[in-house]
Amino acid sequence: xxxxxxxxxxxxxxxxxxxxxxxxxxxxxxxxxxxxxxxxxxxxxxxxxxxxxxxxxxxxxxxxxxxxxxxxxxxxxxxxxxxxxxxxxxxxxxxxxxxxxxxxxxxxxxxxxxxxxxxxxxxxxxxxxxxxxxxxxxxxxxxxxxxxxxxxxxxxxxxxxxxxxxxxxxxxxxxxxxxxxxxxxxxxxxxxxxxxxxxxxxxxxxxxxxxxxxxxxxxxxxxxxxxxxxxxxxxxxxxxxxxxxxxxxxxxxxxxxxxxxxxxxxxxxxxxxxxxxxxxxxxxxxxxxxxxxxxxxxxxxxxxxxxxxxxxxxxxxxxxxxxxxxxxxxx
Length: 331
Known about the structure:
Blueprint: E1 8-12, H1 21-25, E2 29-33, H2 35-41, E3 47-50, H3 58-61, E4 72-75, H4 86-90, E5 95-97, H5 104-119, H6 122-130, E6 146-150, H7 154-165, E7 169-173, E8 178-181, E9 185-188, H8 193-197, E10 202-205, H9 219-224, E11 230-233, H10 242-250, E12 256-259, E13 279-281, H11 292-309
Parallel strand pairs: 1-2, 1-3, 3-4, 4-5, 6-7, 6-10, 7-9, 10-11, 11-12, 12-13
Antiparallel strand pairs: 8-9
Helix pairs in contact: 5-7
Protein name: Phosphoglycerate dehydrogenase-like enzyme
GO molecular function, one term: NAD binding
Organism: Nonomuraea polychroma
């Protein structure tokens, strides 16, 4: 806490802070830093605002003395795996929040667009157009096709509702199997994943990256899929063993993929995914629609006011699970 009794807030960003930073500065003393300045700015701060999921050096900058570490860390993204290092997780007095709820509907629309693009071969149409080729061909219907959505949180649920409205048959994959789910109908538990993959025409990954989900789509999972199936990943690149996916696509054991996230971002120029047929590559943008930064700012400002008033925060992350759970979500 500063000498004026205001919280000391460190805002970590890549040069693009949240919109209207003066609104934050009216409530707290703010230090704007990049990763190279974080170690010097962080000791003694009350709050750390992490401006996205692309920062990898937070653990190296973290104060060795827990008394000098922030009491609240907010991540301006949904995924928080980059801040779940031991010192932060073990600190029982530290609250971690994220930006759950900002991206749900935008990502759901993006997934529907990707599935339509794959079914209608829109990449092929655009390629023929660039070459001025008039090449007639047939495309596929999406109505009645089976979709398995891996990840049953708010983003996965928004995807399920969007795809169901478009006429696809939707089921889910999560930690615990169940029937009668309002959005998914049937949710398959972890032990049922391989069988569920074999029934799906489209597999959509929208799960958080945790020790349990890392590499969930490996060679064994890919072999369980139908050769006519397509994979859509809007979750995290680490959910997929990328080399195994490339091999499956090259061998024709999978019909295609639409990938918005990757093990390494930006995707290296020499990655075979750029040129493989039936693959759509996008630069981690599924949820980034006009106005998303303003929505991020409003969420953080609401939580900052709650923090100052001693009220419960929104979107509290269960640090052991790695995501906002029902018992850690706040009001």
